[in-house]
Design goal:
7 helices, 7-stranded mixed sheet, about 25% helix, alpha/beta, Rossmann fold, 2 domains, about 325 residues, about 25% strand, Methionyl-tRNA Fmet Formyltransferase, Chain A, domain 2
Length: about 325
């Protein structure tokens, strides 16, 4: 099998397993493209992306650019790569860069295309209540995530799995998938097939997407909470302050409540449990993060509230 010269583009931790898999393989990663250092922490210290750090550890040249244009494009084209590989880079690849490698660019995407094209496929799949997801390696084309697919992997979504946990899992299994596709391109056995099925879009999540609407069914509420965990995070408003919801689940069927006892958004304590009403079944709060305090279990938060504190959570994102 011929050895290919690869350019790898990626930024977050989810892209690191793919980079490491390619480094460990028979091909040469001649450069890594990643986003520029960004401020992190309370002190705003400029910090390289996880992909940049991984590349530095392996002595691979790094090109830092938030946009693939101008000097960055010229630099990458001059490398004469056989194949470009992109995993969650955070920017678009346009002409002339798109067609500059001999085999173009391939993309590892964390969904079963054409479902969930866009920036947040893992989060959107969980929020929508999907039971099955996966990853796909496809040929990059100008249209968003629309290229022919080389190979896919499928796996069920766990009933309590958060977006962060699912993404970490797919990043590992997807790295192996990506490496196999690169090998097949190198030996000439790769076959890409047109995407088939209904297209759904997965735009990037914003803070307002984490605002919990308690008037929705309990399954929708818990799917939203899992889908926005850890980022951008689920929250509700209590006594005018934001309460972050770190972990919650649909309450056990054994919990007895009187007719009309728990309206959507209303809290109640049952023994050691902190419950909140939805349109269907109560949701049990497990871990929360009150404004200005540390994360804690829901019981500790409830017991520490003032005697005259409100027992109703307010949904403020009606414009969503």
């Amino acid at each position: 099998m011929p050895s290919l010269k690869l350019v790898f583009a990626g930024s977050p931790a989810a892209a690191v397993p793919s980079l490491l898999a390619l480094i460990a393989g028979p091909h040469e990663v001649v450069a890594v493209v990643t986003r520029e250092d960004s401020p992190r922490g309370r002190r705003g210290v400029l910090t390289p992306t996880p992909v940049a750090s991984a590349a530095d550890e392996h002595g691979i040249p790094v090109i830092k650019a938030n946009k693939l244009a101008g000097a960055a494009t010229e630099h990458i084209v001059a490398l004469g790569a056989d194949l470009g590989v992109i995993v969650a880079y955070g920017g678009l690849v346009r002409e002339p860069l798109l067609s500059s490698p001999a085999h173009g660019w391939i993309n590892l995407h964390f969904s079963l295309l054409p479902r969930w094209r866009g920036a947040a496929p893992v989060q959107r799949a969980i929020i929508a209540g999907d039971e099955l997801t996966g990853a796909a390696v496809f040929q990059l084309v100008p249209e968003l995530d629309a290229g022919d697919v080389f190979d896919v992997l499928e796996r069920p979504i766990g009933s309590a799995e958060t977006a962060g946990e699912l993404l970490e899992s797919l990043a590992d299994s997807g790295a192996s998938l990506l490496a196999r596709v690169v090998d097949s391109i190198a030996d000439g056995s790769a076959v890409a097939r047109e995407q088939v099925g209904d297209v759904t879009l997965a735009p990037k999540l914003t803070l307002v997407d984490g605002d919990v609407d308690w008037a929705r069914p309990a399954s929708d509420v818990t799917s939203l909470i899992r889908g926005v965990t850890p980022e951008p995070g689920a929250f509700t408003t209590v006594d005018g302050a934001r309460l972050k919801i770190l972990e919650a689940r649909i309450a056990s069927d054994s919990i007895e409540l009187g007719p009309g006892e728990l309206a959507p958004g209303q809290f109640v304590q049952k023994g050691k449990l902190i419950l909140i009403g939805t349109a269907t079944h109560p949701v049990e709060l497990l871990m929360v993060h009150p404004a200005g305090r540390k994360a804690m279990d829901a019981g500790s938060w409830w017991r520490g509230r003032a005697a005259d504190a409100s027992s109703v959570a307010v949904f403020t994102g009606a414009n969503r």
